Amino acid sequence: MTSLALDDEEHSRTDYVATGTRAFVSGGLGSAVAAGTVGAIGGSEVPLLGNAVGFIIGFGGYFLVDALTGEQVERGVRNHLEGPSSGGR
Predict the structure, then answer these.
(1) C-alpha to C-alpha distance for 80 and 3, rounded to whole angstroms
(2) Per-residue DSSP letters for 10-62?
(3) What are 2-21's pLDDT values in tens digits?
(4) Predicted model pTM
(5) DSSP letter, residue 1
(6) Cβ–Cβ contacts within 10 Å for residue 64, how many?
(7) Lowest CB count within 10 Å: 10, 15, 31, 81, which one?
(8) What is the H or E stretch that residue 69 is in?
(9) Residue 83 three-state SS
(10) 53 vs 68, which has greater pLDDT?
């Protein structure tokens, strides 16, 4: 969303909502994957290692979830906000 705000092009409310929703879904699901993995690996028994593994998996999880679902989420939000007659863009 920041890159939309900082570029020289004009963006609609739909652009911001679709991009923000995509990031929210990817971040939320990536965080859930990281939390589950850290809990399975060591949890509170190994706090420093758990933190490092959680960061790495959370970061990678975001990109994995975004690659798998990001386009569909963004397209769905656009279709909902713009209506089916607009073709999504």
Answers:
(1) 23
(2) ---HHHHHHHHHHHHHHHHHHHHHHHHHHHHHTGGGSHHHHHHHHHHHHHHHH
(3) 778 788 888 888 888 998 89
(4) 0.58
(5) -
(6) 15
(7) 10
(8) helix 47-82
(9) coil
(10) 68
